[in-house]
Structure formats: structure tokens, C-alpha cells
From TrEMBL, chain A:
The protein, known as: Phosphoribosylglycinamide formyltransferase, chloroplastic
Catalytic activity entry: N(1)-(5-phospho-beta-D-ribosyl)glycinamide + (6R)-10-formyltetrahydrofolate = N(2)-formyl-N(1)-(5-phospho-beta-D-ribosyl)glycinamide + (6S)-5,6,7,8-tetrahydrofolate + H(+)
Cross-referenced InterPro entries: Formyl_transf_N, Formyl_transf_N_sf, GART, GART_AS
GO biological processes: 'de novo' IMP biosynthetic process
Involved pathway(s): Purine metabolism; IMP biosynthesis via de novo pathway; N(2)-formyl-N(1)-(5-phospho-D-ribosyl)glycinamide from N(1)-(5-phospho-D-ribosyl)glycinamide (10-formyl THF route): step 1/1
Lineage, broadest ranks: Eukaryota, Viridiplantae, Streptophyta, Embryophyta, Tracheophyta
First-level EC class: transferase
GO CC terms of this entry: chloroplast
GO molecular function terms noted in the UniProt entry: phosphoribosylglycinamide formyltransferase activity
Subcellular location: Plastid, Chloroplast
UniProtKB/TrEMBL annotation, chain B:
MF terms (GO), sorted A to Z: phosphoribosylglycinamide formyltransferase activity
CDD domains registered for this protein in UniProt: FMT_core_GART
One annotated Gene Ontology cellular component of this protein: chloroplast
One of the GO biological process terms: 'de novo' IMP biosynthetic process
UniProt gene name: PUR3_1
Enzyme Commission number(s) from the entry: 2.1.2.2
Family according to the record: Belongs to the GART family.
HAMAP family: PurN
UniProt-recorded name of the protein: Phosphoribosylglycinamide formyltransferase, chloroplastic
Source organism (scientific name): Quercus suber
UniProt pathway: Purine metabolism; IMP biosynthesis via de novo pathway; N(2)-formyl-N(1)-(5-phospho-D-ribosyl)glycinamide from N(1)-(5-phospho-D-ribosyl)glycinamide (10-formyl THF route): step 1/1
Listed InterPro entries: Formyl_transf_N, Formyl_transf_N_sf, GART, GART_AS
UniProt-listed SUPFAM superfamilies: Formyltransferase
Length: 298, 279
């Protein structure tokens, strides 16, 4: 029975600062709204990794993990060593997840800034909020309805100008062009309002997802955040949260319950992303490293 | 419609080691004509139940003890679990026959050891004593089977059986259907696929079997977490614990006639303590 081993996604990047080994403490995760239904014990598990020096994290080759070479020194506070990230958010509609992440960014829990909003629909709720908050808006893609939209390569160039580190899809209904996926490998996240792979794929968006969940008789649902790769719907799952589906639920009631979890989950994931706490397991599954206890993952 | 929501003190599933699932029951507004009967108001989209038999206060006094057929291909741990619950009294029914496709399977050995007749199905090159579909139906009719419980049965259920037992065949699958279901998804393959996908939750699903096989309506599910360092075997063990608990809970409800069909065709389990609440 082979235990899972880890590869850090940042091991091969020499400019990535290493994360200091913080002392062990009990991780008190903030309680999710779903605790109204469950008390999810946010179970963290430890992986066995070798520590050479207190200020550095080495990934032992024998555990199937690459070695980190990093000469920079760091203080105890994670934020002193980790660069503040630049985020692009893509929306097609109201942008409630966008607003939620933006507030967390202003509030300090997300160690990053939304530097640009990309939308497929001029005048959508998300773009109005962006403009009201001084965030530049880019229209993509170019279509008959939106002739001012950018072409794929121009979109990539624009995001590069903004020095975007990560792309967060938050209710974006158009197809992500392969040029973008190639320009930002392992750097594009999407959120979907069901427990993927269930109720995903073509035609499954918005309220259609929740209607399908109820019609199937499924007793549980919840958001999934996953990386976007060239295979679209099959990108690796990074995080999920569970809510119950009740016997008398309408699609709207279920949608509201899932949306509450979407907001919480996307902020939690974006926080981890900006603090470079996304670690890749050997089989390609991305894990979130605990902030309080770096040897624990979920 | 006004809905009263109570927190029902249900027996705790094993998954409560990870979650404290408040088994939330919800009320539908239904008209009660007499204390001993439950009527469902058509306006809520629920079908009317017509039942002429009289019932005492104890449900068991009025409800006939059910006859169950269980189908297994392997060890039969769910079969054994339900059998124990039947002997123990929590399941208001008896397993009257075991059907297996593999002579000498663990499940068939346990059946023989416990005086339960064993039927071989289907007929194949490897098992030439196996029955033909119509003979299987005839055999189950002889046993006066009310419900068929598939518990790790790997062969296809013949359409003759499905037509003979509409809304009476249940199956258990070790993932949260519709995820990780369909052709090729059985046993350890399911758990490996769950882990490989990065899914953070899994758990058993019990569903009715209709002519469309994998798309029968879901009757019950239970959730367990998938941990970052889980092997397929560890996840399988965690799900199996929930399978046993869930199949006993569902079979109990089935035998007590507490499966109610919502207007859109989704089956619900009616609370025993509070017949106006469902999940």
C-alpha cells in the first residue's frame, strides 16, 4: 500500500521564496456555513517530509518530491517572504464570488490584488462593480454581440501587461482559449456549483445544475474548485464543500445554500493560492497546505 | 406552504466521526383525516395514499413483514449486515432467498450456514446450472419476494426481473452517484477513481433500479471525507462502514412502507417518529 507523496509546484522555480517552518499548533479552521448542517471536522493529515534547516522547506527526493533550492532568507511572518499576488477574475454575470474575493483582498485575508476583470458581457453586474472599485475591465471574447472584445492572443498580452499571476474564473460562461491555458499552466481556477464530476460538463451551469441535482434525488451537493487545463472539465479538483439537499428544496433554495459555500470556499482557496500553499501530490492532485501546520494537508 | 423543520434524533451513522450530520427532516403540509392514516395532499405534489387496512399505534401491528431477496457476487458484507438486522428485529422483514452468480461465493456460504436458500443466476459457460431470466422471476415469485436488494451483484439484472418488480429493486453503489458510476465503475476501481480525481467527498448511494440501470432514482446517500493521504483501501473501508449503516436504515424504511414518491419521481424516506417529515 503505497502512501501518497508530494511534489511542490514551486520546487522547480528558483525565484520562489521558501516557506519557513512554523511551529506546530492545532489548526482552528473557520467554521463554514455548512456547520449549520454538519460540524465538518476539517481533518488535516501530515505527510512525512524532511526538514534540513528551520528556515527552509526541503522536499526529499526519496519521498518522490523535488528538492527546493533557495538562497533567500525569511522572517517568521509568512507575508514578509511571499510576494503579493496579482489576480485576474473572469465573470459573465453579477460576480458575487468576485465581490467576495475583492472584499477579502481589501480586508487583508487574501494576500493579493485583483488587477483586472475580464468579462464576456459589457455592462454585467461584475463589470459595474469593478468600475466602481477602480478595477480595469477587459472585454473577451470578440463576438457579433461584442465586436470590441479581444482576440485570444491579445487577451494573453493584456494579462501579461498586468503581470497577472493567477486567473480566477467566477461565473464565466465562455470557453477559455487554449492560448490562455498554455500561458498560465496550473494557474487558472474555476468554481462549479456541484460536487464534480457529478452534474458537470456541457449545459450544466447556473440554475440548471441545481435543478438537475434535485431531479436526480441526490442528497448532497456543494461547490467544487478545480484547475483548468486543456481538457476543461477534467482539471484536477482542489477543494470541495458539502451541503445537504433537503426533501422540499427548490432549485433556488439549494442554489442559495451552495452559493454561501462558494463564497467561503473561493476566499479560502484564493488565500492559500496567494500564500503559495498549493502543493501537488505525486499523482497530480493539488492539495492545500495548512498555514498553521505546514506538514498537514487537505 | 408552511414547513416545520425539526432536528430528528436519528441513530448516528459512522460518518459522525467526521461530521455531526443533523439528520434534517422537513415537513410537508399534509392533511390528516384520521390519526391512524396518512393522507398526502395532491396540492403539494405528492400522491394520495389509499390504504384500507387499519393500523394500531404500533406500526408493526398493521404492516406486513416483508420478504426480501438479496443478490450478491462476492463476500456479501451488506447481505450479512442486513441479515443481522433482520434477526435482531430492526428490519421488519426476512431474507427468504439469496441469488448469486458465483457458486461458492462468500455470500452463498453464509446463506447456507444460516438456512437461506441459494439460487444461481445467470446461466453462463462457467455456471451452466444458472437459471434463465424467466425462471429466476418464477423462483422469486415462489418465495413471494416483495423486494430485491442488490448488494454487490456484478451481473446485469434482466429486464424481465425489472418488469416483474417495478419500484421494488434497490442497488447500493460505493460513490456519490452520478459521480463515478456506470460501466467499469465497481469495487476498488471506484475508490481509485475518486482519489485520482481529487474529489474531497465520497460515500454510498442507494438507488432504485429501473430499465435504465444506472439512472434509477436516488433514495439515500451518506457522505464521508476523502483525506489527502488516503489509499483506495482506506477510503473503501470508510465508505463500507457507511454502506452497512445506510442499507440497514433504508431496508428498515422499505419494510415499514415508509418510502414515499415525490411528484417529480424522486423517492423519499418518511420519518418513523414524525410521519409528516421526509428526507
Amino acid at each position: 500500500m503505497k502512501a501518497q507523496s508530494l511534489v511542490s509546484g514551486f520546487c522547480s522555480n528558483p525565484t520562489t521564496p521558501s516557506i519557513p517552518n512554523t511551529k506546530k499548533s492545532i489548526f482552528q479552521a473557520p467554521t463554514p456555513p455548512s456547520s449549520a448542517y454538519f460540524s465538518q471536522s476539517r481533518k488535516w493529515v501530515s505527510f512525512k517530509i524532511q526538514h534540513s534547516a528551520p528556515q527552509r522547506v526541503w522536499c526529499n527526493k526519496q519521498n518522490g518530491v523535488e528538492e527546493v533550492n533557495d538562497g533567500t532568507s525569511h522572517g517568521n511572518d509568512l507575508e514578509y517572504g511571499v510576494r503579493r499576488k496579482k489576480l485576474a477574475v473572469f465573470v459573465s454575470g453579477g460576480g458575487s464570488n468576485f465581490r467576495s474575493i475583492h472584499k477579502a483582498s481589501l480586508g487583508g485575508s487574501v494576500h493579493g490584488d485583483i488587477v483586472v476583470l475580464v468579462t464576456s458581457k459589457r455592462g454585467c453586474g461584475g463589470s459595474v462593480y469593478a468600475i466602481d472599485n477602480g478595477i480595469p475591465v477587459v472585454l473577451f471574447p470578440k463576438t457579433k454581440d461584442e465586436p470590441d472584445g479581444l482576440a485570444p492572443n491579445d487577451l494573453v498580452a493584456e494579462l501579461r501587461k498586468f503581470e497577472v499571476d493567477f486567473v480566477l474564473l467566477a461565473g464565466y460562461l465562455k470557453l477559455i482559449p487554449v492560448e490562455l491555458i498554455r500561458a498560465y499552466p496550473r494557474s487558472i481556477l474555476n468554481i462549479h456549483p456541484s460536487l464534480l464530476p457529478a452534474f458537470g460538463g456541457k449545459g450544466y451551469y447556473g440554475m440548471k445544475v441545481h435543478k438537475a441535482v434535485i431531479a436526480s434525488g441526490a442528497r448532497y451537493s456543494g461547490p467544487t474548485i478545480h484547475f483548468v487545463d486543456e481538457h476543461y472539465d477534467t482539471g484536477r479538483i482542489l477543494a470541495q464543500s458539502v451541503v445537504p439537499v433537503l426533501a422540499k428544496d427548490t432549485a433556488e433554495e439549494l442554489a442559495a445554500r451552495v452559493l454561501q459555500e462558494e463564497h467561503r470556499l473561493y476566499v479560502e482557496v484564493t488565500t492559500a493560492l496567494c500564500e503559495e500553499r498549493i502543493i501537488w501530490r505525486e499523482d497530480g492532485v493539488p492539495l492545500i497546505q495548512s498555514k498553521e501546520n505546514p506538514s498537514e494537508y487537505r
